[in-house]
Structures
1.
Amino acid sequence: MSFDANRQITVGLSFWLNKDQTDASIWSNGATQNTFFMYMMLLRSPRIREVILLNGGDATAADVPASLMLGDTPLNIQPMYESLDKVDILMEIGLKMGPDEVARVRSRGAKAVAYKVGNDYVMDVESIVFQNRKGPVFNGAQFDEVWSIPQHMRTCASYWEVGQRCPVIEVPHIWSPHFCEQAMAQGGVRAGYQPGKRGKRVSIFEPNVNVVKSCHYPMLGCELAYRERPDLLSEVYVLNTEHLKDHETFKLFALNLDIVKNHIASFESRHIAPLFLAKYTDIVVAHQWENALNYLYYDVLYGGYPLVHNSDMLKDVGYHYESFDARSCADALIDAMEHHDARFVDYNQRSAALLKRIDIANPANVDVHVDHMFRLLGAQ
């Protein structure tokens, strides 16, 4: 039976928030931001009647804490089990769905999509090898399609296609300056690169929770840059390393570096990126492994800060270096420290072009997601 392409549809995004989560942070992980970016983007489509945050917890819109930084975004939060039967498209995004829930949606002709924002293959292998598994990726839920973002397609597309028993579709990575602006407003700061400073402060924001994003190569790049041009580098802040300070292997790695011996580097806890950028940062050095697109990169570029990175998907912005090559990283860092001020206007223009392409306000991003939904529903 064909689907009327002229009708509006209702989309439900899986979500979890309890009333007692008064300190829930939008900066805790990229998946939380991705859920709200998707929600805010879909609200822009005239082809969608309603977007529902299907909450598996007990919070209502009135319970959403200020720490989620949603500002005046209109929130349509409804209990998961009471509202599943309203949706034409169910998207697993902020909360993992069980087989019965997905089957309930599909039994009446609605469609179910698993939207993947993490490198499940790497995380699953690490969980199995290190025996810290927290739950199965493949739990028997039968989706109509898996949707994922470009940086995970090489390692995970086949993994999902076989394991989930359905097609895997690539969709664009989406972003908005919303949370940067909210963080700055709440923190009373205005983030943005300030030209003219000689000794640069470098920040490394990698989360250090798995091999996908760790601080090791950024630290090595900073080390070589410091050995060659100590006059250019005043401080290196290595964030998200508080839990590593007493790790014997990490200590031996760090204590071998001049930036540590000479007290240039310090090891910090987790911080809200736009606020740390505004207060303590001139340059960001990043490294990833099969995770070439990151919200941190966009936030850094939005502020005009030099982004020294190894993402082959973003070679036209920032200061690119070759993966797993500390010399290349150091060269890119020295280049940024010496010449970014002179390139500031052109740098921001190139960054703005990228950010416009990925913005949730870009009609092309809205349309590609909604087009896929109508295709899945069999629109004629």
Note: Residues 14 and 54 are 5 Å apart (CA to CA).
2.
Amino acid sequence: MIELRVPVVQAPMAGGPSTPELAAAVSNAGGLGFLAGGYLPPDRLRDQVRRTRELTRERFGVNLFVLEAHAVDDAAVAAYARELEQYGVELAAPRFDDDSFAEKVELLLGERVPVVSATFACPPPATIESLRSAGSEVWVTVTSRDEARTARDAGADVLVAQGAEAGGHRGSWTDADGPDLPVLELLAALRDAVDLPLVAAGGIADSDAVRAVLAAGAVAAQAGTAFLLSQEAGTNEAHRSAIRGGGETTVTRAFSGRRARAIVNEFVRAHPNAPSAFPHVLFMTAPLRRSGDPALRNFLAGVHFAQAKELPAAEIVARLSP
């Protein structure tokens, strides 16, 4: 694994919070900043990679979604659409999309990004080998021993161990209902299963948490929610207000059709039984999330979101430093 002056990785946060400014600031502060390739068209991702290079000479990473088409319960998705009619917003058609994975890999091969990470599944071994040949370290997000062993056998350089406390979508390779191991338990399980560097994710909100995961065998800690209020983050104002407002988080499929940890709001409470169908439901509910009504928005966050600080990213890296 590449050496970091500070063992802190800024988690890729798709949908807006991750920006070139945030990634560069974290890398310049001695950690490792990440761009979130998820949801971005390839040309916009290229622009972000090049903008990041204008802002830092340090290494940074790019995260990609690895989405595989699976059969979904169309009747359950249709029933959920009828349930959502109460909001008076015309929904979009549910559909599958692989998030332009092949095109983004080709882009990153040309850009020779220092680190490429994957979420939701493991890239094919041939893809991992191509990225490594282009000079990229390949990190794979895992949530279990089986996933870790498969990623190791596919050629991954580093495993991102995502614990139950993490905000955002679960990085598990299926959308099954748990069990989700807390990050320290997951580290213990993976440490005995694979001989690869482990980056710990989930509930990393302060230097004590970083020290705890390092003591448990991780080589670095990945934090996302801790940076949501940073000056460089692209977090929208409604999301920032929700974080400032306090409350609690839960794991829900209500917004996207895939389990994700979010701040509890009216929409989450109203739809506890949303179907498992990602990204189908994500596309379907997009008009709701764009409606401007905060009660219909998704505010992804980890369990310790109340500890997020409105500070420059470099100061947040310093606060996380063990």
Note: DSSP finds twelve helices and eleven strands in the chain.
3.
Amino acid sequence: MAIDALKEELNQINLSVGDVVIDVATNAVGFLLKRERRIDMLQDDLYFWEIKWTSGERGDQFRNNEALKLSLWEEEQLKLSIILGIIKWQSIDGGSFEL
């Protein structure tokens, strides 16, 4: 039953290019740039999001390394992070996820 509830919550999050995500720990703001499909031998299709990050209040980690401003997140990992409250999400279509 808990697995079904989690799957239902995951399905409620519809990520789109242009959505805003915020890392709660660092207050870094990210923008979803591109969704990539990759094929895995065991899990079939996997989807990844390219995120462009700004440095947050506590986040000088990006200031000296431009390459770190872009990151690739697996879609299910990103959605779980949103559900757990690690990442805040605001869709360009007006959607969000509140605990």
Note: Residues 50 and 98 are 23 Å apart (CA to CA).
4.
Amino acid sequence: MLPMNKVLYWKNMLCCKNIIFRVLVKFRWDSILGLADKCSINSLGVLASSATIIKDSFWFYFSSLL
């Protein structure tokens, strides 16, 4: 659950109106995409997907580990 929450948190910060938050996301973008790639979500999926699609992707990844 923790990686999913991190990706969703940073995605929300990217969409925030506060310019400082968006700059912070730009600096951390490589680690965010690395975390998403680890769970089989591509970089376009993080930007273009809704939170529901990201959650479904994480659950699919975790269920495949079992």
Note: DSSP finds four helices and no strands in the chain.
